[in-house]
From TrEMBL:
This is Glycosyltransferase. Residues 204-365 form the Glycosyl transferase family domain. Residues 16-172 form the Glycosyltransferase subfamily 4-like N-terminal domain. PANTHER family: GLYCOSYLTRANSFERASE (PTHR12526), GLYCOSYLTRANSFERASE EPSF-RELATED (PTHR12526:SF637). Gene3D superfamilies: Glycogen Phosphorylase B.
């Protein structure tokens, strides 16, 4: 089969979860005799040189064309991030000529990249891989200054995905969530993870390790509260990952944590910043244990990476990767968003002997080796692809209102004309406050 993948990130220019997911599976699909072409890009990526590696041909979205296509969606100029997502999605569709010549297209739910493929009647059969949509992320970590976008995006995502040819994800919880929302069956196929031989750390640490963005839904507050509950017994946890915003554009998550949990954040939890994938891997090998405190996560690769290295992993049941863990057999799980449950799991771990930890780590390693074997996972995915190609596209077509909402249109002469309906006093006061904030930042 000739398979086309439209995805927002791919190595070597990204090491995020979506990049990791495809890095492990696409070369295996190629090994099994299929032609793999990847178009990489999103609303916020820049064009990079094309390349071919491991039988996978990779090209990048033309960011200059994305910029020029923004005008076709200037009716959404009041929501610039959403406007840019749609411009990027349609630029990708144009760049690959609507998928002509391919047997099947796979795209992701993130960034509205799936939109053109859902409404274009001549597109090849399309799989939407559900990683974590922008509407989902906003729902679990809402920003007070982007509620208009969040609500609009969720409505459009739900309606578009309800008419997708095939929906697929890699955790039971995410499959159930989307099934409930769309009324559609959602395939749940685990991700591939090549077996990694033991990585020897230059030294061992007595600290735990979290790898992930410093973000609310990654469990930052829950971890701080759990460590407060443990008091003097609380271990030191290092946190690798970049800072993000919390609640609004002007609030840093790390700043909020430092202010709210001054005895924990920066002391018991030590933020280290970001590192290269290779350096992060070494930190994982060095760590005493791996912790995934997420309130919600479609999967979470750091859980799998820790298990593959033979580490004891404590994983929130809010992360899809918890599907792989049998409590106290190949790791530890705890209730999502429940500080006392996390504290109890940490207390259990601290009571274990070194021999018990090594035994659990070995079982964890074997779990990854057998259940996430790339050959096995690739075969399961190919069975879904072949069935879809033979069956054809989904029988229910999108309605005209939906098509109009996400399609390119003739640019409006006054895209911000809706501001004329707002009271001038409110606009003037807002502009004054915004100007003062900007002036204050420049003065610092």
């Amino acid at each position: 089969m000739r398979l086309l993948f439209i995805i927002p990130e791919y190595p070597p220019y990204s090491a995020g979860g979506i990049s990791t997911f495809y890095r492990h599976i696409l070369p295996e699909l190629s090994k099994q005799g299929h032609q793999i072409h990847v178009l990489v890009g999103s609303a916020f990526t820049s064009k990079q040189p094309s390349y071919e590696l491991d039988g996978v041909t990779v090209e990048f979205l033309d960011s200059n064309v994305v910029a020029s296509n923004l005008a076709k969606f200037n009716r959404y100029q009041a929501i610039p991030e959403f406007q840019r997502h749609l411009a990027a999605a349609w630029t990708a569709w144009e760049q690959v000529n609507g998928g002509r010549g391919y047997d099947l297209v796979e795209t992701t739910d993130w960034g509205m990249l799936f939109a053109p493929w859902m409404i274009s009647p001549e597109s090849p059969p399309t799989v939407v891989q559900l990683h974590a949509s922008i509407g989902q992320i906003d729902f679990h970590d809402p920003q007070v200054d982007s509620q208009l976008q969040g609500n609009l995006v969720r409505l459009l995502e739900l309606t578009l995905l309800s008419v997708a040819d095939e929906l697929q994800t890699y955790s039971h919880s995410n499959a159930q969530a989307w099934k409930k929302l769309t009324g559609r069956d959602v395939n749940n196929i685990p991700p591939a993870m090549p077996f990694i031989s033991d990585i020897q750390a230059s030294e061992k640490s007595s600290h735990g390790l979290v790898v992930g963005r410093v973000q609310y839904w990654k469990g930052t507050t829950i971890l701080c509260e759990a460590l407060q509950l443990l008091g003097e017994k609380a271990p030191i946890i290092e946190w690798v990952g970049r800072d993000t915003t919390y609640r609004d554009f002007n609030t840093s998550m790390a700043g909020y944590l430092k202010q709210t949990y001054p005895d924990i954040w920066g002391n018991k939890v030590q933020p280290l910043g970001t590192f290269s994938p290779e350096e992060t891997c070494q930190l994982q090998a060095k760590a005493n244990f791996i912790l995934v405190p997420s309130i919600w996560d479609v999967f979470n690769y750091t859980c799998v990476e820790g298990m593959a290295q033979g580490k004891v992993v404590l994983c929130s049941q809010g992360a899809g990767a918890a599907d792989l863990i049998t409590n106290e057999v190949n790791g530890l799980t705890f209730l999502a968003g429940h500080a006392q449950s996390l504290a109890n799991s940490l207390d259990t771990l601290l009571s274990w002997s070194q021999a018990k930890r090594e035994e659990v780590g070995k079982v964890a390693q074997e779990t990854i080796k057998t259940r996430l074997n790339p050959q096995f996972i690739a075969q399961k995915r190919l069975e879904v692809y072949e069935k879809l190609v033979n069956h054809g596209r989904y029988s229910i077509a999108p309605n005209s209102w939906l098509i109009d909402a996400v399609s390119p249109q003739k640019p409006l002469d006054k895209p911000l004309g809706f501001l004329d309906r707002l009271p001038l006093r409110e606009l003037a006061n807002y502009l004054l406050e915004r100007s003062l904030k900007k002036f204050g930042k420049r003065s610092l």
